[in-house]
Backbone:
């Protein structure tokens, strides 16, 4: 089966999470492609979809919202999952973070099976206006990498199991 891992990222942290998911799916024998959500022209080649978005100011990235709106109706009957990335908290706290309203809307449009929230990454290397905010937050002790690759990969293995089960039926 071919799986699309679409993502909307601001500073690259969510893109890396999407690649970790795609890597893990490929390790289980699936054909997985990690692509920016705004660059996906069509989902016809994919039997399953994972959509991820950076969380900023408690909201989803516009590219992820547009992806869900555009492809949600076409995803009926296909396995789909969503994830959010962004809280600057440890993995245990992030696991308990419910999806934001925009993620819930995407889940409804896409008929998803599950949502996960993963920690974010805040680095002082960001550029532009966001970089100014990031540098200020990092300087005040809020920076760091709060992503947990092992938790992301475990979630991806759950997805792989569900996709492979769906493939057999």
Residues:
């Amino acid at each position: 089966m071919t799986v699309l891992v679409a993502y909307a990222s601001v500073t690259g942290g969510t893109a890396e999470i999407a690649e970790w998911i795609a890597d893990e799916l490929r390790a289980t024998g699936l054909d997985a492609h990690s692509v920016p959500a705004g660059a996906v022209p069509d989902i016809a080649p994919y039997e399953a979809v994972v959509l991820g978005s950076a969380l900023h100011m408690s909201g989803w990235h516009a590219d992820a919202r547009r992806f869900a709106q555009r492809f949600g109706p076409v995803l009926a009957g296909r396995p789909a999952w969503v994830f959010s990335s962004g809280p600057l908290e440890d993995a245990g706290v992030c696991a308990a973070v419910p999806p934001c309203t925009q993620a819930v809307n995407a889940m409804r449009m896409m008929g998803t099976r599950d949502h996960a929230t993963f920690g974010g990454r805040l680095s002082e290397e960001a550029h532009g206006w966001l970089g100014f905010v990031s540098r200020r937050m990092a300087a005040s002790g809020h920076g760091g990498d709060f992503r947990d690759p092992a938790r992301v990969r475990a979630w991806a293995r759950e997805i792989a199991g569900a996709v492979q089960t769906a493939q057999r039926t």
